[in-house]
């Protein structure tokens, strides 16, 4: 058999072709209408969920190709869909209150759960009848399917913090541990989390609200915001620093400089593994839902309103495959996030604990991440705190 | 017009050739520098609401910026830090630049290039290195703890740590500017002063310092202006008490999405920087500097 030899010219030609393809790749969503003639599932999604084994399984079972475009924040994806993205994507991801907004704006279509037999694997707390954010306001249409979840709880070094002080947001204001706290540098989570404590202190958390909606820490009243500001200023004096990234928090907790910090449980999971391996000599605990309430998110899959029936079918196949137990065990191990699918039978006991498989009831009661009701007002509060 | 006639035309009109040479650079400056600046000025008079910009013209952002105590605090922190860092860089940088220019010999260029060594890595990496040195689990404090001494709290996420970080980041600019001035300086003048009975300190005050003022002034501007707007260093090293105007500005364009107020902050910082340049410019006399080719007139 005659084989082609690898010459400098052929390498250069190949490299040039690859570079050319790579250069035009970012434009893919804008040329994909023409490309869509071939069977291809086009997704606007978060990168951690593009797991190669899952993609390979999908492509081999459907014969379709997988074409993802990644985004960072909900607003970025929403804006892409608003400016013609419905024609360019079959699937889009979002969390919190966003799926309802997408549906209200006509950017997504209803999700037919009858075609998602694997929803039987989902914890009941994350199905639309209990987790109502997966359906529209009237409860007439399911607008999204659940994926992973996460919380913004408090990770605690239990060798340093007394057990009676754990379990409440007020731990972060305990003078006993001055200089051993850290908090995220993002203003939304700081204000929203302290807003829950403020509303609890004021006794307004369970009272009827002007908008007729249940309490939402992203929609605080002026009195609650004023109390929140007071609490944040008091907390600031007790902080060692506001961490910028997980590596920093990880380092500070590992070194014993920080004893408690609100975070997305990434540091907790890492420290927990290190403890099991004997690399650190203290115990850690993560308070997912403090007694006053906690913050969290549930990622979802939605189907674009621009997807025709054939593409919508393909999208449903992807979602269904994703919700299979075998795949979801892979997803939680790969991403480290909590799973809305019950995969306890496939995980080791320590993994069940690590990925919060027993905490889905708590998770579904968390206050979902949202946009501040007035970013301008929140910015002013945050500036006052930072300048104090 | 074909190539030949274009060449002939440019030969006849040297101005055309000059314009052709200047045009690409000038166009880049206009598009890459002036237009964004203009956009910032325009946005500063608009309004932001829930992450959207509205073209409602007013001075509200400037009123907020100058009227709210929080932003005044951020500005004062930034200003005091920038002044202190500039002075420290000046005091520490002058002897180094002088030593290299006077005694560096054939290694002068190498020594100056060594000053640029930190620039071989990104700013975040350099800040991370400083964190690894100054932080509570950094080299210094861990070392002290290991020998039974208490850690130095002043180095752990404080304004002092942020200040040290800024000096570390910007001192090479100061040294380089002063060095470039000193390499054009005629050191024989110091010998003349000595022969005429001047002590070294007086010779420095009356000859070296004034004749190299341009390099010093440029160094001061190169340190002061970026320090004033710096966001990264106080963010990573400064702790909760070190929020600067630059950090607040970065936040307006990032998570809070209050672009209009952020633009007003940008314009304000730009104006303060211009003011600093206008204040220092009249003190520079090019004829007394080595840059004009004449050492003394």
Coarse morphology of chain A: globular
Give the strand line-up of the largest sheet of chain B. 1-2
Going by CATH, the architecture of the largest domain in chain A would be 3-Layer(aba) Sandwich
Class computed from helices, strands and strand pairing of chain B: mainly alpha
Number of discrete helical segments of chain A: 14
Write structural notes for this entry.
The complex is a heterodimer of chains A (388) and B (297). Chain A is an alpha/beta fold. Chain A folds into two domains: 38-143 and 296-359, 3-Layer(aba) Sandwich (D-Maltodextrin-Binding Protein, domain 2), CATH 3.40.190.10; 157-294 and 368-387, D-Maltodextrin-Binding Protein, domain 2 (3-Layer(aba) Sandwich), CATH 3.40.190. In chain A, 41% of the residues lie in helices and 16% in strands. Chain A contains 14 helices and twelve strands. In chain A, strands 1, 2, 3, 4, 5, 8, 9, 10, 11 and 12 form a ten-stranded mixed beta sheet that branches. In chain A, strand 1, helix 3 (52-62) and strand 2 (65-70) form a beta-alpha-beta unit. In chain A, helix 6 crosses helix 7 (222-236) and helix 8 crosses helix 9 (266-276). The termini of chain A are far apart. The model of chain B is unreliable at 292-297 (pLDDT under 50). Chain B has 14 helices and two strands. Chain B is 70% helix and 2% strand. Chain B has helices at residues 3-12, 14-43, 60-67, 69-103, 108-115, 123-134, 139-146, 159-182, 188-195, 200-211, 213-229, 232-237, 245-253, 259-280; strands at residues 47-49, 52-54. Chain B has a two-stranded antiparallel ribbon. With 297 residues, chain B is mainly alpha-helical. Chain A binds chain B through residues 75, 185-188, 236, 239-242, 244, 248, 251-252, 254-257, 371, 374-376, 378-380, 382-384, 386-387, and chain B through 48-51, 68-71, 73-74, 131, 135-137, 142, 156-157, 235-236, 239-241, 243, 247-248, 251-252, 255-258, 261.
């Amino acid at each position: 058999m005659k084989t082609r030899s690898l010459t400098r010219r052929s390498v250069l030609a190949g490299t040039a072709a690859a570079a050319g393809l790579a250069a035009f790749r970012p434009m893919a969503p804008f040329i994909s209408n023409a490309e869509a003639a071939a069977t291809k599932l086009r997704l606007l999604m978060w990168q951690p969920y593009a797991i190669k084994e899952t993609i390979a399984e999908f492509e081999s079972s459907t014969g379709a190709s997988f074409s993802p475009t990644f985004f960072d924040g909900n607003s970025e994806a929403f804006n892409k869909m608003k400016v013609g993205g419905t024609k360019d994507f079959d699937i889009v991801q979002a969390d919190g209150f966003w799926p309802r907004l997408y549906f209200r704006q006509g950017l997504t279509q209803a999700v037919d759960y009858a075609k998602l037999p694997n929803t039987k694997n989902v914890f009941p707390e994350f199905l639309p009848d209990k987790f109502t954010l997966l359906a529209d306001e009237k409860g007439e249409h399911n607008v999204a399917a659940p994926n992973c979840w996460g919380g913004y709880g408090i990770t605690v070094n239990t060798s340093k913090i007394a057990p009676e002080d754990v379990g409440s947001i007020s731990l972060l204001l305990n003078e006993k541990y001055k200089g051993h706290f850290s908090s995220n540098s993002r203003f939304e989570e700081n204000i929203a989390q302290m807003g829950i404590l403020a509303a609890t202190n004021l006794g307004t958390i369970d009272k009827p609200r002007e908008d007729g909606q249940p309490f939402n820490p992203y929609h605080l009243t002026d009195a609650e915001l004023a109390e929140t500001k007071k609490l944040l200023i008091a907390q600031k004096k007790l902080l060692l620093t506001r961490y910028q990234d997980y590596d920093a928090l990880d380092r500070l907790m590992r070194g014993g400089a920080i004893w408690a910090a609100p975070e997305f449980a990434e540091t907790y999971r890492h420290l927990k593994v290190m403890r099991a391996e004997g690399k650190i000599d203290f115990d850690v605990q993560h308070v997912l839902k403090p007694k006053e309430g906690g913050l969290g998110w549930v990622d979802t899959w939605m189907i674009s309103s621009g997807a025709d029936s054939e593409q919508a079918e393909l999208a449903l196949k992807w979602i269904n495959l994703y919700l299979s137990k075998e795949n979801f065990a892979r997803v939680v191990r790969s991403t480290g996030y909590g799973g809305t699918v019950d995969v306890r039978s496939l995980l080791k006991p320590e993994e069940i604990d690590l990925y919060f498989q027993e905490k889905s009831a708590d998770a579904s009661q968390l206050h979902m991440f949202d946009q501040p009701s007035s970013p301008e007002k929140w910015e002013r509060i945050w500036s006052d705190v930072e300048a104090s | 017009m074909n190539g030949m006639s274009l060449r002939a035309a440019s030969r006849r009109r040297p101005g055309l050739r000059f314009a052709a040479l200047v045009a690409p650079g000038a166009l880049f400056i206009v598009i890459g520098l002036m237009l964004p600046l203009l956009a910032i000025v325009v946005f500063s008079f608009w309004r932001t609401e829930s992450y959207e910009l509205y073209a409602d013209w007013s001075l509200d952002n400037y009123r907020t910026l100058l009227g709210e105590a929080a932003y005044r605090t951020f500005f004062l922190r930034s200003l005091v830090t920038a002044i202190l860092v500039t002075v420290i860089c000046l005091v520490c940088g002058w002897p180094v630049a002088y030593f290299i220019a006077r005694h560096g010999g054939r290694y002068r260029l190498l020594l100056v290039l060594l000053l640029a060594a930190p620039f071989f890595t990104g700013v975040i990496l350099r800040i991370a290195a400083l964190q690894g040195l100054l932080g509570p689990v950094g080299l210094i404090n861990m070392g002290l703890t290991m020998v039974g001494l208490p850690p130095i709290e002043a180095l752990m996420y404080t304004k002092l740590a942020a200040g040290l970080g800024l000096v570390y980041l910007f001192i090479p600019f100061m040294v380089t500017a002063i060095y470039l001035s000193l390499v054009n300086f005629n050191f024989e003048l110091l010998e003349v002063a000595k022969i005429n009975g001047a002590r070294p300190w007086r010779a420095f005050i009356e000859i070296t310092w004034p004749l190299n003022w341009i390099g010093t002034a440029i160094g001061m501007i190169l340190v002061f202006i970026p320090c004033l707007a710096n966001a990264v260093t106080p963010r990573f090293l400064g702790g909760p008490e070190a929020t600067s105007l630059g950090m607040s500005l970065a936040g307006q364009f990032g998570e809070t999405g209050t672009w209009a107020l952020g633009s007003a902050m940008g314009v304000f910082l730009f104006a303060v920087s211009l003011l600093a340049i206008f204040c220092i410019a009249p003190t520079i006399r090019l004829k007394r500097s080595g840059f004009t080719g004449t050492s003394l007139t």
